[in-house]
């Protein structure tokens, strides 16, 4: 019995929306596992939670002392981790916007 072929995904051919809000370069954007929202981070030292389908910022997270270089969200969407130029990893509560813990000890910028 031959294996069932899965059709290739259809990629968008035009711009759907533009998310504006960061003051400076955006360094990374990640979607949550279901693709219902995304997180962005950048040179302005903030992270932003977006509804990309409606085109608005839900929440802005501040706390990093330097640029935020990467972000990753937990599978249940309750927490996220961010890293950056301040040589730290921040663990965040997504809903409250509070930092749960800072992991220090890196000797240089953390990229991912």
Question: How do you describe this structure in short?
Answer:
This protein is mainly β. It is built from no helices and eight strands.
Report on this model:
- This protein is mainly β and 112 residues long.
- The chain has strands at 26-31, 38-42, 46-51, 56-62, 68-73, 79-84, 89-93, 99-103.
- The chain has a 4-stranded antiparallel sheet, with no helix packed on it. Strands 5-6-7-8 form a 4-stranded antiparallel sheet, with no helix packed on it.
- It is globular and about 50 Å long.
- 23% of the residues are buried.
Oligomer: single chain
> How does the overall form come out from the CA principal axes?
globular
Order of helices and strands: EEEEEEEE
Mean pLDDT across every amino acid position: 93
Strand content: 35-45%
Helix content: under 10%
Q: If strands are numbered along the chain, what order do they take across the biggest sheet?
A: 1-2-3-4
Instruction: Find the count of extended strands (DSSP E, 2+ residues).
Output: 8
What is the first-to-last residue Cα distance?
43 Å
């Amino acid at each position: 019995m031959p294996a069932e072929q899965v059709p290739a995904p259809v990629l968008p051919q035009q711009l759907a929306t533009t998310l504006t809000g960061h003051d400076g370069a955006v360094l990374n954007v990640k979607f949550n596992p279901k693709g219902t929202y995304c997180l962005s981070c950048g040179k302005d030292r903030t992270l932003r939670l977006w509804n990309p389908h409606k085109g608005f910022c839900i929440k802005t997270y501040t706390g990093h002392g330097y640029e935020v270089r990467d972000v990753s969200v937990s599978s249940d969407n309750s927490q996220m981790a961010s890293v950056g130029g301040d040589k730290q990893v921040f663990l965040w509560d997504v809903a409250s916007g509070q930092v749960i813990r800072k992991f220090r000890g890196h000797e240089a910028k953390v990229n991912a």
